[in-house]
Amino acid sequence: MKINGVPYRSVWLNEKDGWSVHIFDQTRLPFSLDILTLTTPDEVAQAICTMQVRGAPLIGAVAAYGLALALRQDASDTSLENQATMLAATRPTAINLRWAIDRMLTCLRPLTPEQRVAKAYAEAEAICDEDAAQNEAIGRHGLQIIRDIAKTRPAGAQINILTHCNAGWIATVDWGTALAPIYMAHDEGLNVHVWVDETRPRNQGAALTAWELGSHGVPHTVIADNAGGHLMQHGKVDMVIVGTDRVTRNGDVANKIGTYLKALAAQDNAIPFWVALPSTTIDWTVADGVQEIPIEERAASEITHVAGRDPQGTQTTVQITPDGSTAANPAFDVTPARLVTGLVTERGCCPATAEGLRTLFPESSPSA
To answer: Which residues does the annotation list for site: Transition state stabilizer (predicted)?
Structure first.
């Protein structure tokens, strides 16, 4: 995707040395476009933990490069296993992270230490390329959903789409998941408008999704998280589409906290609720998302404080709760499959059911 006309991916190698890793510092967006250079696995782990880099597909790709950086320091069997364990533990909910580390280990374990560094970089690059291609395919399949809605409207009528959190290109290697169909619809000339949930507590919608859409020229409006149901009741939402950090083999969906409430409101108002994901986000080992998916608990300070920019242009953080008030901060919730209209994957769309997923991915389902 492009920023001010310049094409970027969300992770890339330094052109000068060919081995250090560049990412955008997402904690500085939308007010500052800062590029970080990561040179050690500890720096990669820190970037993931602090959400300088975030988004389920992207953290998997960056962690893969983190393992390559680790092997530059020590390519022994012990180092490979220890660094993989360290990187995999940085965030528990997004399955793409574990998937990427497991793929790297499968590739690297049979090799000698002398062979591992070059192969690690090549495999991490392959993970990135595959993610970009998958997300572009998700965009094409999701675009057809938007086209179908457009066919039911008068020519040129606005199509209102609501999304929660950030599932755009900044959360993946390129294109994004939930936003990819929107970008393609806009580029095709469809009159799309996006309701952007602010997505408390970290405001990924207000900061990242709005920034992305604005950079691409997509009409959008930022709304408070609790406004979505009201808009649905008054006929101002035609569809909801979100990303996800983990999908069970039965179609339950873990996504940013607040997604479940949007799905309930969508069902109550007969509005389609779609979830976009690459197949790397499917956890075939889990059946019951509510009971089995680990939900990350993040720092209370994300609730008690809010980041922004003051009138002088300085980025700052201010406290918004009384001294002494405690705060709980579950980062994700699980939307049961019964509330999901369907899943949009790189292989097409399917119902959020075991049968639907098995139809698209027969080689991966437990019964294969």
So the answer is: 165
The answer on 43 and 101 residing in a single domain is yes
**Residue 216 reports pLDDT greater than 70:** yes
The Cα 182–Cα 169 span in angstroms is 12
Phi-psi region of 189 (alpha: psi -120 to 50; beta: other; left: phi over 0): left
Binding residues for substrate: 54-56, 91, 204, 255-256
CA–CA separation, 7 vs 215, rounded Å?
A: 12
- Whole-angstrom distance, CA of residue 312 vs CA of residue 146: 41
Examine residue 136 and state whether it is found in any structural domain, yes or no: no
pLDDT tens digits, residue range 136-176? Answer: 999 999 999 999 999 999 999 999 999 999 999 999 999 99
pLDDT band at 3 (very low <50, low <70, confident <90, very high): confident
Q: Are 212 and 170 in contact (CB under 8 A)?
A: yes
Sequence ranges of the binding site: 54-56, 91, 204, 255-256
Strand 305-309, strand 315-319: pairing:
antiparallel
> Is the per-residue pLDDT at 303 higher than 50?
yes
Residue 255 contacts residue 242 (beta carbons within 8 Å): yes
Please report the pLDDT score of residue 157 as a whole number.
Answer: 96
137 in a structural domain: no
Q: What are phi and psi of 80, to 5 degrees?
A: -55, -50
Question: Of 114, 31, 18, 33, which Cα lies nearest the Cα of 65?
Answer: 18
Catalytic residue numbers, as ranges: 245
Tell me: do 168 and 125 sit in the same domain. no
Half-sphere exposure of 80 (CA within 13 A, CB side): 21
Q: Which residues are CB-contacts of 191 (< 8 A; sequence separation ≥ 6)?
A: 150, 156, 157, 158, 159
Q: Are residues 118 and 170 in the same domain?
A: no
CATH of the domain at 327: 3.40.50.10470
